[in-house]
Protein: DUF4080 domain-containing protein
Organism: Paenibacillus albus
Amino acid sequence: MKVVLSTLNAKFIHTSLALRCLKAYSEKDFDIDIAEYTIKDPAMNIVADLYARNADVIGFSCYIWNIEETITVIDMIRKIKPDIKIVLGGPEVSYDTTGWLERLPQVDYIVVGEGEETFHHLLTELSSTCKFHLVFGLAYRKEHQDGRVEIIVNPPRPKLDLATLPSPHRFAEDVPSLASRVVYFETSRGCPFSCQFCLSSIEVGVRYFDMERTKSDILYLIDAGAKLIKFVDRTFNIKRDYALEIFQFLIENHRGCVFQFEITADIMRPEVLDYLAEHAPPGIFRFEIGVQSTNDLTNEAVQRRQNFAKLTRTVMKVKESGKIDQHLDLIAGLPHEDYNSFRKTFNDVFELRPEELQLGFLKMLRGTGMRLDAEKHGYIYMDRAPYEILGNDIMPFSDIVRIKRVEDVLEKYWNAHRMDHALLYLVERVFPSAFDFFQQFGDFWEGRGWQKIGHQLEDLFSRLWSFLSEKHSKQATEDGEVWSLDVVLGLMKLDYFLQHNYKPRKVWWDFTMDKQVLGSWMKRLAERPQDVSEQFAALGLGDKELQKHAVVEQLPFDLKKYLAEGVVSTEEETLLIVIYSGGGKSDVREAQFYTLPLIPARQA
C-alpha cells in the first residue's frame, strides 16, 4: 500500500513537522512519502505531482492557512482517482469533525488530535480487516445495509507516551535543504494556560520529550547544516530548569544556528535572564512573546493570566542585554477591547520598542471558548478559514478596517526596520503616540490608493515624505517644541543610505549639492580624513575610492549630538559620509556612516 503524506505550507521555506512525525512512526510498516507544497502553488501542479506518485492513500495536514486550498486539491484528486483513500488531520479538522465530513463527502477519514498512533492504526486496518470502529481518534462514514450513511466519531485516543515516539528529524532526504528552510522542533506538547482564543487551551497538561533525545536531535540538525530552528513549544520556559538546560546546551553547541522560542515573559525567572545576558552570543536566540492585550478586563474575560509589569521587566532586561531579538504579538478585537482601549494596548507595547510588533486580529478557531461564546459579545466573523472577526458589540467593522491600516504600515516600516531613526523621532517627538502616527499614515496611504500598487524601497521613503510634508509641515509637540521637517528629512536620508549594501544609484529626494562642491568634499576627505575621526582615517581611502564607494549629504543640524544625546541643535550642521562595501583597505562589508561638523551657511 503506497501512502503519501502531504500539506500546503504557507511559504516554501517552511517545513511540516506533523508529516515527519507521522512518517517516522509508520515508515517501518508502510511505504510512505512526504510531498510538501505551498498555498501559492497552482492546484493543477499539485494534483499532477500527487497523481504521478500513484498513491493508494493520501493524507493532508490541515490548518486555517491552508484548508481552503487543500479542499480544492482534494476535489480534483477525487475526480481523477475515485478509488483513492483520502485522510485529513491537523488542528483545523480535529474540531467540528462531523461538520467537516458533512461538508466534504470526498474525504474518507479524519484523524482527530495527536495523529501518530491513530494514523498507523488506520493504515493497519485499511491493509487488513477494515475494522475502523476499533481505531480510537478516528472519524469516518459507515454505510448501513439499507443504504443509509452514518458519520461515526470514535472516542478520543489517550495521550501518547512521548518517550515511545521515534525522531522526526533523521530523514536523509531532508538534509540537502536544511540550510535553506526552517526546521520546526518540539521539546514538549501541551500548554499550562487556558487562553480562550487559542487551541492549546483545550489540551490540559504539558508533556516533555526525553532530554537526551532532544539534545541528540538538535546536534544532528546542526551538524547537518540547519540554520534556523523554531521551537513550537507553546510555553518554552514553563519549567525553569528544563529551559535553562536547553539554553545552556544551545549556547555551547550553536555553531551559528539561530533558535526561536515562544516564551511567557512574565514568568521568566531572573536567574535565567541573568544567565542569558552573560552567556548568550548575540543573535542566536529570538523570543516570541504573546502580549495580546494590556487591558485587565480583557485578559480576565479570555482567562489569560498576565502580569504586564513583570512582562515589561523581562522584555526590557532582554533588550538591555543586546543579545536577543524580541517579537511581541497583539490581538485586536478581544472582548471588552474597543478602538480606544486597543490604542492604549498598542502604545503600551510599542513603548517597549520590540524588534518586531505583530498586530493580528482575533480568529474564532474551531473548538475554542471564544467561538463557543461568540454571541455573548456580539461577534460576527468569517464563515470560512481563517474565521477572522468582522466586528463585535464594541468594535464595529469600520474600526477593524482602520486598525488594518495600522497593521499595514507597521509591517512595511517598523517591522521591516527600513527607517528606524526617522520613525523613532516621529513617534517620540511629533505625534501624540506611536499608534496615532501609524493610524494617520495608514489612513493617508489608503486615501492615496497605494494599497493597490507595489512599491520599491525608494517609494516607501517618498510616500512617508509626502505624508509628512502635506499633513505636517510644522507642528507644536506637547511640550511646546516646534519640530521641523528638515530634521525628519535628514534622518530619513541617513536611514535610506543605511538600507543599501552598495552605493545607491539614485536617491528619492532632490540632491542639490553642486558637483564641484561634491568633488571638493571628496578631495578634503581623502587629504584630511582625521578631520572626521581616527576611525575614518584608519580606512585609508583615497579620492578615487571615495568617489566609488562613498556618498555625502549636508544636514542642517548636528546629527552626532542628536544620536548621542537626543538633542536637536542647529548650531552646527553636519556632513554625513556613508561608506559602502569594497571600500579599500578596510574591507567594509556593510554601510558605515561618519559625520563631520560644519559651520552653518548662514553664519559663514
Summary: Confidence is low (pLDDT under 50) at residues 476-481, 583-589. The chain has 21 helices and 22 strands.
